[in-house]
Specification:
two-stranded antiparallel sheet; homotetramer; 8-stranded parallel β-sheet; disordered N terminus; 12 helices; alpha/beta
């Protein structure tokens, strides 16, 4: 294995997805890859980045490059983070702990899900002093939310990421076809009582309601903020007014996201709505984005439009599938190196220098 | 079979078309799928929906959801209906009666064709007290129109849907290639004297005319309105002026439609012209749409642009092919559930709350 | 065979191309299908039509329909004609004479090439009293032009179509790859001395010139006009100023054409430039178009934009390949019938009623 | 072999790429074809040309055509040149010397790379009195730059092309996957001490820097200009301000280039930025372009937008792979002939006549 954690499991970022497809059984692959419905939003996330162009700068690529940024007051080694994703133990036996180790070694922020395969305490042990946050799916009883947050806090998580876009699970056709069910049959490390968002509706006379009271509301945000001193990040925001209201409710950051295209098929691409949310929030909160981020150029585009950092999702699962902790480490190193090259080619030496002038005219 | 009528014939809406393709012989499949000419309008119908985006709402998905709407004064369980389609007995032995039973059980409006395989009286028996309308192809003798309408009325149909766009059949290449002919060889349940729209032109000296006097005119609309007290829906309108004129002639509703892309190849997508027709008609008549509706998101888009309800066509034939009555029931349940999920994700609790604010900026 | 000349060689217009591909040897197929270079203009011709949409009219399709138009003073049975194409004997033994018979029987105008396999006198005999024009490739000696025109005139041609866009042959990669050469090895019915346009350049010191003096000039137009009393059509015009100048030089009509995408790859689609040429020429000359016309809807689009008639090219060769004279007759009947249906669906009873109001908003 | 150097290795320009793909081993093919990352910029280069349209001129194609232009004061036989490309000996044993011979015989300018397989002196011998320039990759020691320039000068190169866009190599996924490494393992004819641009970053505490001090700066441009009396061309400019600054620093010409899509994936197409650079530079320097040029029509488009000449890259390697010197000669002859035909069809007799009026409206 090379000095930077690479050992050739996949030669380039372009090869990672195919390598993972060969490793995973079909049902897990359907879980990883699938979006909602016809997967229009899933594709839109990617296409939104592919329409953007970056302006290189000649003769300006010499000198040292510093990728560090501060997220909610803590320094991390690069302006990208690992987005929260459930059930990582179904992808590789090392699961969230493997991801945690790779992220911590690289100084990269990782966000872990309520529905992690490993308990949050185990993940905390694996993370050492690496930066980590906890993602919360609202539970039927408020006390369960509070207990989860307290466990996360004690395990070293320094922020709570409350998911706002999942009153019910989206209609995930590829998962259903592939035979992967998000329900009680999948073990959840944080305890057998932890429930995922509701699947499908239940009839109540002439109307319908979710199968469980897991739908988060603005009151949920209030209560979560009240039960912890950790900063709150609201995940799953696509509208400017909503983003502003989250900040009014005390959120410290907004994660612009359409849940990787897994919730409402037809929702806009994360990148498409980012500028309006940046405008609405101004300097009152940090704004992040996930959805469709694959390459260093995507990171620069999102930063240029005002994101403070971007989350990477499926590629981390691909890397985990291919090589567990070592696979994730290899992936993080490749993405970091590509980002350094991209900054050299655009003549930037620090993240603070990445502003709108790095964008060339979008391709029509 | 599950409590909601599903038994796994097709796991998701995305799988329905392929499942049907395996069930039907090539000629029936060509009939179901084919459009006119090069099928540009057929594709355009679908693409028009795929360009639209919906704006999710965070933290607003809790609470009961009511899908009911009133169509021409009668309550139905959801804002979608089964569009009129001929010859359903060639798709499955249960034919229109199977469709009628599934629709009635679900409280969904179904529209039955002049060219149904089952007689309208049989369909009426299968429908019980389910909501149903009768679609009329103008017949060579006005008395035949009147008799059909009276039979439909006695069979429990509560509106007459007069088709306006079929002076001749469109040039349906896929059907012709597949060997499916719309002519006297296909049995029509409503009687051997009932004729379909004319096929192709006949030479008369230096000019041409349709093979039969089935081409409807504005006078046809007048006569149909005069011979019944049922409300009249005009089907096959794509122009604003025409829609207004239909209302002037006494129509209670307009069904914006290009006949599923089967008449004039090159005609605009139904969705493309909907806004101008809504503007023209205002509150003087209800406006519906069919053509390209496949998913719950499509229904929300059409409602947001002002449609009171939308018709689903080919998917019902797919479901009928796959499982007869039970297949259609399964399809209707899946579509209804997807619509509830979509309303939860966009924070709507009733159809009345679906307005233009649910639309995000169309994707370029 | 049916009463209208159809015998089922190809069930629909959509099937014709594939049927021809199976009949012709690869080199002839390459000749028929190929365009210049990367075939961008070839594709653009078709795509320009596919972007256009037509507005149907409800309740207006009853009544007799008259397709006749007058072209340069003579009535023809429909507003489409057979564009000039060389070497038809390489497609089918019946060659131009077969085409001439089918056209004459249908009352359709046919234009025959200088490079016809059959001599113009033979074609004239086959045409009977059918409408026909003669296309002229400028010959190295003016006297040869004059003799050809006189022979055409004596053979019953009522106009001369002078090709203006072929100082050299375009770079026809598909033909070259397929092994079809336009040179002295292909017999020309009008005599061994008749030469095609020059292939490729010849070096002259530091510069280059065509291999033969076949490049037409404005003076060529002058001389052609002077040597006959037949009206002159200039073929291969894509610019408004040029069109106006042709009329100033005495042309009676302009044929907007990019030579079926065979000359300059990258040239605009014929349809794209049609409106500006119509504007430039006004009522001083008739304007026709060829390039990409496949369906009745294309004909309506070109007429709506101001063309007096449109030429069909490759489809005639496909039909000739499939069935000789009978194939062409079948094709002409199918296209005519489709045009009648399209006029019924758009509520037009004569070609004079086809104006811009038939166009719906172009699809973006 | 024909009089113009063609012997049928590839019948047309459209066949060249496929012919080369069959000749080269996979790793060399990956080197030739690959771009950076997902190859968006690679594709964009080509697509930018394909969106442009050219306006033919009827009746204006007679007469002799002169392709000659003067580049930095020296006459060359056509307004295209061979762009600098490294390691040509890995493509064919004749390597740069073969290319040099073919170019010289055709009177075409060729630019040779610092990383040529043959030493520049050998190339000079092969070039005879053919026009040639030397491309410089900045070396770790300024003295090395000076020595290379002096050797080039003595070998008959009449300009220095300084590459400005390569502080590090781009992330070339296809090359990496194909197993082609740009490093010390590939022999460089100009001496074992010559180094390519740095690959990837090296960690320095919390920051990163290139692996070698090969990143060129504005100071590099200053020093290069000072150490020679040859004119300086700066290669790899995509911004208007940068282009102006290069001229302020004494550059005689700008080569608009994104390094064939091999550096920053997401950079704009060369053609997209050409007009703004032409505007910025005015008549103070010559402007050239490379990237995506394949056909004569592309050359006319770039000239019309103000380029003085255009570079062809990959096609030369394809031709070299297919037939060494003879293959390149064949390619150059085909491209020249196609350009003459295109000028005849657009009615131009010299390069000076190619202005913006040759462009038709871009296709939407």
């Amino acid at each position: 294995m090379g000095e930077d954690g690479r050992d050739g499991r996949f030669p380039t970022l372009s090869d990672l997805e195919a390598a993972a497809a060969q490793k995973l059984p079909p049902s897990a692959w359907a879980y990883v890859q699938g979006g909602a419905g016809e997967e229009r939003t899933l594709r839109a996330n990617r296409e939104a980045f592919q329409r953007m162009t970056l302006q290189p700068r000649a003769f300006e690529g010499r000198g040292e490059i510093d990728l560090r940024v501060r997220l909610l007051g803590r320094s991390v080694s690069a302006p990208f983070f690992i987005a929260p994703m459930a059930y990582q133990g179904t992808i590789h036996p090392e699961g969230e702990s493997g991801v945690a180790r790779a992220a911590a070694e690289a100084g990269i922020l990782a966000v872990f899900s309520t529905l992690s395969t490993d308990p949050i305490e185990t993940i905390g042990g694996a993370s050492g002093d690496g930066p980590r946050w906890f993602q919360l799916y609202h539970q039927p009883e408020d006390v369960m939310d509070r207990q989860l947050i307290q466990r996360a806090e004690r395990s070293g998580c320094t922020a709570v990421v409350l998911t706002a876009d999942t009153p019910m699970l989206g209609v995930r056709d590829r998962q259903a076809r592939g035979g992967f069910a998000i329900d009680a049959s999948v073990p959840v490390g944080n305890g057998p009582g932890i429930v995922p968002p509701a699947r499908g509706p239940v009839r109540v006379g002439e109307t319908y309601r979710p199968a469980a009271d897991t739908a988060p509301t603005w009151e949920t945000l209030d209560r979560v903020r009240e039960c912890t001193r950790l900063p709150i990040v609201v995940k799953g925001i696509l509208g400017a007014e909503e983003a502003r209201r989250c900040v009014d409710y005390g959120a410290s950051a907004i994660l612009v996201s359409n849940h990787g295209g897994r919730q409402l098929d037809g929702a806009p691409a994360s990148l498409e709505v980012l500028p309006s949310i940046i405008d609405a929030v101004g300097t009152r909160a940090e704004v992040y984005l996930d959805g469709g981020v694959r390459r260093a150029s995507d990171i620069l585009v999102a930063l240029a439009l005002g994101a403070k950092a971007v989350g990477v999702g499926r590629p981390v699962l691909w890397a985990l599938a291919v090589g567990g902790r070592a696979g994730v480490a290899e992936y993080l190193a490749l993405l970091r190196d590509e980002l350094i090259v991209a900054m050299a080619l655009t003549g930037r030496r620090s993240v603070a220098e990445v502003d709108r002038s790095i964008l060339a005219v979008p391709r029509s």
